[in-house]
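STRUCTURE:
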């Protein structure tokens, strides 16, 4: 419900900036289609943040010690970094359409380019308190009721969920090895990107200049 609210709140804020401040009054079918784009991007941002929050429960227990403030600090740093990179690159890609000679595409690029950062800021501002509220109120309430189905006590989904969570915790505790794909992106890929970062930036700039000329 929080995620859906974030998605729908992104549109009025974007409209105020684009039409009110940017004086781009055109609003066509392409802008309506943008809702499908922001659904995927918002879902990805929320997944990244929730995944970082879950990881904070298992990583550095001797330091975090179940403190929600420390867990949120870890999750925020880890999640926001990834979300910043993906949202900024996606927004820049849409803003590139502002150079299009076709007016509907130009207006779509500007609107969507503003929509992505607005969605990012809403996720960053709304998801942390929502997660804390869930952990402090909703989760405790369901635990006191004896299960994950409100009003029905224990239900069939709880044992499977608990088994999956316990298996995940055991794998972390046992130090289960990552797959070859995970190892490749965690070591070889990251090292090469860092090593040749200046070459990649220069090549990207040259490619952008050639494309626009």
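SEQUENCE:
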């Amino acid at each position: 419900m929080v995620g859906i609210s974030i998605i729908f709140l992104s549109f009025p804020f974007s409209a105020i900036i684009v039409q009110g401040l940017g004086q781009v009054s055109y609003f066509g079918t392409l802008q309506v289609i943008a809702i499908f784009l922001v659904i995927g991007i918002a879902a990805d941002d929320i997944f990244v943040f929730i995944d970082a929050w879950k990881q904070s429960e298992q990583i550095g227990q001797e330091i975090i010690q179940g403190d929600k403030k420390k867990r949120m600090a870890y999750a925020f740093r880890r999640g926001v970094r990834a979300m910043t990179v993906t949202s900024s690159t996606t927004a820049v890609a849409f803003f590139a359409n502002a150079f299009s000679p076709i007016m509907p595409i130009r207006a779509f690029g500007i609107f969507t380019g503003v929509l992505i950062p607005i969605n990012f800021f809403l996720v960053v501002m709304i998801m942390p308190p929502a997660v804390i509220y869930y952990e402090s109120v909703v989760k405790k309430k369901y635990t006191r009721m004896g299960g994950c189905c409100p009003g029905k006590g224990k239900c069939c989904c709880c044992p499977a969920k608990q088994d999956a969570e316990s298996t995940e915790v055991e794998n972390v505790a046992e130090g289960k090895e990552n797959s070859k794909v995970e190892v490749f992106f965690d070591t070889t890929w990251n090292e090469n990107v860092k090593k040749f970062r200046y070459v990649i930036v220069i090549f990207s700039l040259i490619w952008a200049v050639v494309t626009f000329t």
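REMARK: Residues 159 and 165 are 10 Å apart (CA to CA).
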